[in-house]
Amino acid sequence: MLKVVLWSLVVLCSLGVVLSDSVLADDDLQAIVASAQGGDVQSQLILGNMYFSGEGIEQNYQQAAAWFAKAVQQGSPDGMYALGCMMAQGIGVDKDLGAALTLLNEAGKAGNSDAYCELGMLAESGEVDGKPNYEVAIGFYGQASEAGNGDATYALAMFFYNGQGVDKDLKTALEGLEEAAKQGSLDALNTLGVIELNGEAGDTDPEKAINYFKQAAEGGDAAGFYNLGMVYEEGNAVEKDLQKAEEYYKQAAELGDEDAVAKLQELSE
Questions:
Q1: 41, 86, 118, 214: which is deepest, by most CB within 10 A?
Q2: Is 213 in contact with 232 (CB distance < 8 Å)?
Q3: Over the stretch 225-236, which tens digit does the pLDDT of each residue have?
Q4: How many Cβ atoms are within 10 Å of 128's Cβ, its own excluded?
Q5: Which residues of 220-242 are buried (b: 16+ CB within 10 A; e: fewer)?
Q6: 260 neighbors 249 (Cβ within 8 angstroms)
């Protein structure tokens, strides 16, 4: 079965911090620590992100939360967003949904669209009211989408695609998915590919579907590689090519896709 990525609560999205190497030289790390200790907000965010991800330093959620908190003290919207996400799920700190919502709202108002996206996910998942609140979720996703957040635009499109909280409307869903793809959503590219391959929007268009999957894969998306593997394994839309399928599954597996790992085992039997 081809993959349409379901929208789900995330722990922490990217803070826009890119480390050039997976392991920093000691001097580089010491410089970041010194700068963070000296009060540089960006360094505090980098160090928090490093501790959260375990990239360049031993993973430590408590330290991650502590450094994000220092950034919050200086009014950083990214710090508010990161710490709010951690508080919402009790990662590195005691779970405190009220404090998390406050931080995320403040971050959103200060221009962090990911914070509105997270608020939308919390409302959609039922974390806030004990049951899903699609109306509130759509409102938060809408605010994030207006700021150009592709993840939020994708989430809104999926409401219309699934008929969840709104009347099912494939035309509106497609428009939203295309906009989300332009905004950088790899999930949107995959979903558009599945729709084209299944002929949900009219005639089946394998070439267009494969192009969407390839764009997602080129962006480093595991589901894009997996879907390409499925296309070449099944041979329904293109000439069957198990060697190509295996290559794509391997790339998906390297990105952590467990279904791709299972597919590789099947092909090796």
A1: 118
A2: no
A3: 999 999 999 997
A4: 19
A5: ebbbbbbbbbbbbbeeebeeeee
A6: yes
